[in-house]
Design a protein that fits this description.
The longest helix is centred in the N-terminal third of the chain and has 16 residues, at about 75-90. With about 350 residues, this protein is α/β, with parallel strands linked by helices. The chain has 3 domains: about 15-50, no CATH class; about 60-165 and about 300-325, Rossmann fold (3-Layer(aba) Sandwich); about 165-295, 3-Layer(aba) Sandwich (Rossmann fold), CATH 3.40.50. Helix content is about 40%, strand content about 15%. It is elongated and about 80 Å long. The chain has a 6-stranded parallel β-sheet, with helices on both faces. It has a 6-stranded mixed β-sheet with strand order 7-6-8-9-10-12, with helices on both faces. Helix 10 links the parallel strand 8 (about 245-250) and strand 9 (about 275-280). Helix 9 (about 225-240) packs across helix 10 (about 250-265).
Length: about 350
C-alpha cells in the first residue's frame, strides 16, 4: 500500500500513474470522470486517489475555491433559504458558491457526477438527494466531502446528513388543532418518496391517535410541495359533505394553495377552515391571513451542513446524522372551529 501523503509532500498525478502502472492520461480520465477506462483500471486508480489523498488544490491556494450546492429548484422559497445558509458559511471561509439544479427525481444523474468531477469543488452539499453508491465512491476517491440536507430517504450510516425533527413537527401542528377543538382534521402530504413527507404525515397520524380521533385515509391528500397541488387537493377535501374544519399541509406552499382554494369556494380562513403549513418560509408571514406553520431552521441546517463538509475536508470527524428542532409558530390562519 502506498504511503499516506503529507501536507508537505502531496501526491502528483505522475506518482499515481506510476503506482497504478498506467499512463498519465488514464489517471486524468479517471479523475475527471471521463469514459475510455476499463472498470478494473478505474477502480485501481480511484483506490490510489483515495489512499494517497490526492487533492487538486493544496490548502495554501484553496481560497476562492468552489463549494457546490445541489438543490431541487433554486427559485423556490425553500431552496432560497438553503442557498443563503450555504453561501454565508462559504463566503466566511473565503470560498464561492456554485449551484446545480437537481430537478424532481431527487437523484443526481451521471451527467451531474461527470460535471462535479470536472469542476473539483472543495465540498458538495445536496438537498434531498439520494446518492448512488457509485457516486459516493467517486466523490470519496477524489477527496470531495459531501453532506445531504433533508435526505430523500434514509441515508446509509456512513453518509453525513442534516435534517429536522419532521415527525415532531407533524405532531405539533396536529396537536395544536386538536387543542383548538378540531375533530375533522385533514392532511395533505408531500411526495411519498421523500423521508420528510412520510415523517410529517406519521406525526399527524400519531397526534390523531393520541387524541382518540379515528384516522380516515380519505381525509389525506398527496401532492408535490407546491401551491398548485395544495389547491387541487384542498378543493377535493373542501368539496366533501363532511368537509374538514382544519387541514395540516406538507409545506407552506401547499398551505398557500389551500387558502386560495378555500377563498375560491367562499370559505373563510380560519373561520371555516384552519390551515397549518410547514417550513416557515418568509412568505408565510406575508400571507393573508398570516400562516400558522411549523418552523424548520432552514438556514441553520444549510450552515451546519456546509461546516460539516468543510471540516470533513480538513480531516475532522463529524456525526453522520444531525437533526435540528422544529417549533410551531402560531399566527392567524388557525382558530377554534365554528361547529
Amino acid at each position: 500500500m502506498p504511503e499516506q501523503a503529507t501536507e508537505r509532500s502531496r501526491p502528483t498525478l505522475e506518482a499515481i500513474a506510476h503506482e497504478a502502472s498506467v499512463s498519465l492520461s488514464t489517471v486524468s480520465k479517471v479523475l475527471n470522470g471521463r469514459p475510455g477506462v476499463s472498470p478494473k483500471t478505474r477502480a485501481r486508480v480511484e483506490t490510489l486517489l483515495q489512499e494517497m489523498r490526492y487533492a487538486k488544490r493544496g490548502t495554501d491556494d484553496e481560497r476562492g475555491g468552489l463549494v457546490e450546492l445541489i438543490t431541487e429548484q433554486p427559485a423556490s422559497d425553500w431552496s432560497v433559504e438553503m442557498i443563503r445558509g450555504v453561501e454565508r458559511v462559504a463566503r466566511e471561509a473565503g470560498f464561492v458558491l456554485g449551484l446545480s439544479a437537481l430537478g424532481d427525481d431527487y437523484r443526481p444523474n451521471d451527467d451531474w457526477i461527470t460535471g462535479v468531477l470536472s469542476r473539483r469543488p472543495l465540498a458538495v452539499i445536496l438537498q434531498f438527494s439520494n446518492l448512488t453508491s457509485e457516486h459516493r465512491r467517486q466523490l470519496t476517491a477524489r477527496n470531495i466531502p459531501f453532506v445531504v440536507m433533508d435526505p430523500a430517504g434514509e441515508p446509509p450510516a456512513d453518509v453525513p446528513s442534516v435534517g429536522a425533527t419532521n415527525w415532531a413537527g407533524g405532531v405539533a401542528a396536529t396537536r395544536h388543532l386538536v387543542e383548538l377543538g378540531h375533530r375533522r382534521i385533514a392532511a395533505i402530504s408531500g411526495p411519498p418518496g421523500l423521508w420528510c413527507s412520510r415523517a410529517r404525515i406519521a406525526g399527524y397520524q400519531s397526534a390523531l391517535g393520541e387524541a382518540g380521533i379515528t384516522i380516515d385515509s380519505s381525509m389525506m391528500g398527496i401532492g408535490g410541495f407546491n401551491r398548485r397541488d395544495g389547491e387541487r387537493e384542498a378543493r377535493k377535501l373542501l368539496g366533501r359533505d363532511d368537509r374538514p374544519t382544519a387541514i395540516v399541509c406538507g409545506n407552506d406552499m401547499q398551505a398557500f394553495g389551500v387558502i386560495t382554494a378555500a377563498f375560491a369556494l367562499g370559505l373563510d380562513v380560519p373561520g371555516d377552515v384552519s390551515v397549518v403549513g410547514f417550513d416557515d418560509v418568509p412568505a408565510s408571514l406575508l400571507a393573508r391571513p398570516p400562516l400558522t406553520t411549523v418552523h424548520q431552521p432552514l438556514q441553520e441546517m444549510a450552515e451546519m451542513a456546509t461546516r460539516m463538509a468543510l471540516r470533513l475536508r480538513g480531516g475532522g470527524t463529524q456525526p453522520t446524522r444531525v437533526e435540528l428542532a422544529t417549533s410551531l409558530v402560531i399566527r392567524e390562519s388557525t382558530s377554534e372551529p365554528r361547529d
